Amino acid sequence: MKVLILNPPAYEGIKFIREGRCEQRLSSFQYVMVPISLPSIAAVLRKSGHEVKIVDSIVENYTEKQVKEEVEKFRPALVLVDMSTATFYGDLETIKKVKEVNGCHLTAIGTHVTSLPEDSLKTSLLDSVIRGEPEETALELANTLDNGCNLAHVKGISFKENGKVITNPARPFIKDLDSLPFPARDLIKNEKYTMPISNRPYTLVITSRGCPNQCIYCTAHQYYGHKLRLRSPQNIIDEIEEVVKEHGVKDITMWSDTFTLDRAFVIDICNEIKKRGLKFRWMANSRVDKVDPELLALMKSSGCKMLSFGVESGCQTILDNVRKKTTIEQIEKAFKWCRQAKIETIAHFVFGLPGETKETLEETLKLLKKIKPDYAQFYGAIPFPGTKFYELAKKRGWLVTKDWSKFELNQNIVSTPSLSVEELRKAKEKAFRAFYFRPAYILKRLTRLRSVKEIVNVPKQSLSFVKEWVKTK
């Protein structure tokens, strides 16, 4: 059967990244991120004989009208839509337009529909939603529809039947990730997914799924579960070889909930890269308690250029409140060791987590100055549906809105007895100014520019970042 996999158009003119737990404005770091779930699902469907087309409206700058035209031309029997919390209302409008074209079955993926399947179905023209890890469920759904069989047997979906929402049993997570074919990157325009400043093409390579940590604000477990599942290093590097040699992409993000959770696994990957003599630049995310000088030196020697850390707060009490299970001392050591290894760092901070006060905000700024990351990002604390933070915020009356479009990371929608929404917004802006507007920092970044193209891109992307992320209310 024909299957169209759709990343919906910009919502109210704002482009969004939608990929599992990562849902935020494209302007958040000025990179154009591959929604890797889409070519991954496409590869599984195509391997089983389905005809698949991917429409990524974000990189194609497609409007709803152009999406309709694509549907009219392709005439799919199944349309799979990538959805997120902040874009939910806009995604519903796109779904409505698609439904007008033909009688195709409409389904959706993402952490929002996974957390709220019944609400998602009742408030939309969707016929079903896929809960959690999407590949095998999407395949069984397509096969079932193609054969005209009953959807009641498809594990991992919720669907409408005679005006009622039926929720089928959950599907077990994929045990052997090596069994998945490599993402169908030939169905997307790889050159359009680019790094900030340099605008070099880059891609994501999934290395593992699942996270055993219990952070109360994170949606990761909804998509991939709590148990860590690893691909084999050989399988990962086979895919990277394909990416580098066949698609010409030499900037890669090792995509996982936490890349460095298994130290031996990381060592094997680095050694396999060196063994094959592959030359490419890569980055990953990590936890501050999962790096050490020896490991970082090996990562650097295999091409690692940057690590991203969820620091969250400079207050130990807040880290404990959100079950981060890291310490301020570990944070300081991790950033020091990265500087010694000459690996650049990104530090992520969240303002408004349980226990936040004016004093803890100052502690965070002090820590920011001490650890000296190369880049920093500051978010509002968003209680996404399905998280313990969401239940806590609802119970305590902290949420100032029920509007899903406000549930995005550059917003502030939590008001506590200690801090109002406006106070948190101002604190976030203060942090941006304190970090990025230092003359020494600006000079440092300018001296690292390597081409006329990069010099031209800096002011343009910086203005976009400030306008669409920092100053957004």
Describe this protein's structure.
The structure is a single chain. The chain has helices at 37-47, 57-60, 64-74, 88-101, 111-115, 117-122, 135-146, 220-224, 233-246, 263-276, 293-301, 316-321, 328-341, 358-371, 388-396, 421-436, 439-447, 452-470; strands spanning 2-7, 16-19, 22-25, 51-56, 78-82, 105-109, 128-130, 157-161, 164-167, 203-206, 208-209, 229-230, 251-255, 281-286, 304-312, 344-351, 375-380. Helix content is 41%, strand content 18%. Helix 3 (64-74) runs parallel beside helix 4 and helix 9 (233-246) packs across helix 10 (263-276). It folds into three domains: 2-167, Cobalamin-binding domain (Rossmann fold); 202-436, TIM Barrel; 439-473, no CATH class. The chain contains 18 helices and 17 strands. The longest helix has 19 residues, at 452-470. The strands form five sheets. A six-stranded parallel beta sheet has the order 10-13-14-15-16-17. The protein has 473 residues and is an alpha/beta fold.
In which order are the strands of the major sheet placed?
10-13-14-15-16-17
CATH topology of the largest domain: TIM Barrel
Q: Compute the separation of the termini in Å.
A: 44 Å
Number of strands: 17
Rg for CA atoms? 22 Å
Approximate helicity band: 40-55%
Low-confidence stretches: none
CATH class of the largest domain: Alpha Beta
Report the β-strand fraction as a percent range.
15-25%
Tell me, what's the shape?
globular
